[in-house]
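yo

u said u wanted the structure for the complex thing, so here. seqs first:
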Amino acid sequence: MYKNIFIFVVCVAFTFYSQAQDVVVNNYLPDNLPSIEYYLSQVIEKQSDRVEGKYASKLRKIYSERSHQMKKAISDSVYFFNEDLNKNLKPILDHIYQANPNINHNDFYFFIKNSLVPNAACYGDGTFEINLGLFTTYDSDDELAYVICHEIAHKLLDHSFNKMNEIVRRMHSKQTKEEIRKLEKIKYGRTRAGLAFLDTLNSDFLKHSKEAEAEADSLGYVLFRKTAFKQKSALSSLEKLKVTDGSYFDFAIRLDSIFDFESYPFKSYWLEDEIALFDTNEMIDDFRVSSEKEKTHPEIEYRIKKIQKEFELDDTGEVSNIHITKINDIASIQNITYTIDFNLLDLAFYQLIRKFEQGEIGSDYYYTTMAEVLRRVYLAKKNHELGKYVPRRNNLSNEEELNKIRLFLHNLELGEVRQISLAFCEASILKEPNNQPLKSTYEFFKR
Amino acid sequence: MNFLNAKTMNIKFQRLFCLSLLLGAVSIVNAQEKTITDLTTFKIKDSGTLMDADMDVDGYYFFYEVDKLKNGQREFAIKLLDKDLNNIATKSYVDNKNVSLTESKFNNQALLFAMTNHKEDYYRLVLFDRSGNEIEKVEVPATRKEIAQQIKLRTQGFSDLVFSVDNKGFLFNRIRNNKKMGFGLKYIPTDGGQSWDYKSPEDSKEIHILNPIQANEEIVVALETSKKSMLSGTLNLKVVVLDINNGNVLFEKAFDRKDDPRMITNAFITEDKNVVLLGEYYSEGDNIFRDKSQGLFAETLDFTGNRISDSKLSWKDKLGSMLAETSDKKSQGYIYFHDVVRTQKGTYYAIGERYKRKASAGGIAAMALGGGNGSVTQLTITDALFFEFDKNFALTDIKIFEKGKSRIPELTVFASPQVNAHIINIMGGFDYQFTQLDTKRDRFYATFIDYERLKGEKNKYAYKSIMYQDGKFAQDKIYLKKSKGKIVSKVMPGKLGHVVLLEYDRKAKSLDIHLEKMNFHTEMSK
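structre next:
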């Protein structure tokens, strides 16, 4: 049950995130897959060659698995390869490198990950990840540049490599072995004692992780201030990451008006919830260890204050949005596209409604795409597969608006999905009479 | 066969969870980490569903042993998933090492866990409120022999220990060893009311078994069966109605063999404070397990036991003639009734399957070849039938849903087809699985496992759900995937109108479990 602590420890060792992690997949593959795979083999091998000492073989084994995992992630389409996006990201990266000529960036590669979570990561071997959700969080090239500088700082400080060494050393140290031996001899309450021991280990690793984040903030700022990007953006960049869980999903989704049609009125029981076993918003867990509640990163407030204390920031100047605007346009649509491609239909639903109502996407795209999402909901239900892709409402989740969509999609019966979709298409065709894809989806439902 | 029905779910769920426990271990790559994992792994002991009287699933529970403590005590963990399969709670529980979590129920106010210990002289009932706090522990005295008998009956698919009464309390029903086998019913309130006990007479010379079948905020309706000995062929049946607030008997109504033998399959408590009993009736002196019934009945009684109405529909009259129209004489056979349900509108539906005694080619061949164990006759189970009655229990229609033939060898050629059908039903040989009642939307869902013979492809088992609403029937099916190689596939009952689909890949150690709504197209059926 608590083996996930180990999985967590290994993940933390490899990566230094800007925020919480998430895994989403898509189907896109790069044109130059063989060369990317070759690159990955090279950089990971290089990292592997650096290891020495008592635990070298164990570390090499871990790096060998890392290479395999990355290649698998690409073939599983975890990443998004887009020339236009890269063209707009490149000038920001080039600017950072030019301002910091001492950075050896020959081995650097930034993978763009299909994920709504505002997040970036450094894997220590030259590979980095930026989530699509991070791009759409920022309004200026400057803010994005600071996060990139922060990730590069992790690489320069060799945090990932050191962390992995530390974990492997600690896990196989005499002290740990002795502790385990003692645990094995415990007759009564051994599992609880084992959990407490794991908790201590985990807390220590998390403590180091927080220290590393603070270090990367400082060095990242040092790199950043050498650029022409505006210094104040370092703070606003962090400020925008100050989000609580589920806050992206706080936009009110008015399903009862969006799907209320004269020909097929909205039914209140589509949003009717069932009585829960427990009347609580929090998971009840008598075995939860304290480190499970800890975060990998220090509080944003603390990080901002630390930078302000260490450096004198110039808060003047106009920020640039030349590249981020284009990047955001691409990322925003890709965020919808990948959720549809992978039948993450609740996420697609939410984004479409939010972005349409906030004017981020046009009506033509909205009507066509929403009709397609409805078609996929219909097919998934028909094949008894919707539960594979769309989670059920969970009272313990604070993603209330997303919960509402999940409840709606699961409460609907197949025939009701068809009726709603027909009414939606009919109403949309009146507004978009020349929209051929919409008409074709309408024909699908009519059949 | 890869369907888990309600009766076998506890055992199968345990296996399933052992599989899912393995999943967590896959990323542990070396011995050191494995040692720590072993030290912190919870060991699964029991698992099951929280199912109410309408066969609606409220959630799922898993009972783990966590730690050995002093004096033969253990720390256990009770893990709960809600009806949407969300992991919502893991509670710690300390008890003796031999304890098992036998059953769990939810009544909208509290959760009850029935703990059984075959080496102690009591059952322990643990109640949690909806905030997850333990609110009460009730010890119900019982001898080890009684507990052992109860466990044996449970493993055979009989005798639920706990019956939940929504927003009111729980009924705990156990076997007692009096002079002969008896029962003890204990009421545990969750609404601040008083607890009470209702027991069979200790000096009775007969075996008594009680089975609560309906309860609301006012009464409990239970079926009490009695017979002189285990081998006795005469079974007496009576309905006992108790006041839920104090356990007083409001009335009893006997359906003895010599007077008015009836088989009661279901009961309903109506809004106008009547009890409706539904089932099959027999001729005076007939044995309800051996003889062919005379027809179906719906009897309405008030809370004092006065008969308001008693509608009977005989095979000789309309029931038989309408049934005759449903098939040619050759395929007619008998009907085995699994359930009779009453809709909120007051109409009734009797759910049955057609069966016929036939010579078994395989059995005869085995006999001819000297392999004497093969049965020369078999019961061939075919279509599902829904008999529709109006408010006055007048037969209005018979809906037929074609199913593939299931052939079950008869256990004894000397007994009637009816006796064999009863035995085969107890053994789970019919295609019928269960009926879920959705009182909110006035629906019911009857579920069958159908063996479909398909043209041009391999025959398949299908999980088939037939839904009734607003006078219309509709059905949906899911073909059951055969567990193949490294892939283990399962189908399990879910909440109302849903099914749980599970696929475990032994090689990839990945578990895919999801809950799906069944889809119903109302244009089908007869």
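Chain B touches chain A through 59 residues (CB under 8 Å). The CA atoms of residues 140 and 339 of chain B lie 32 Å apart.
cya
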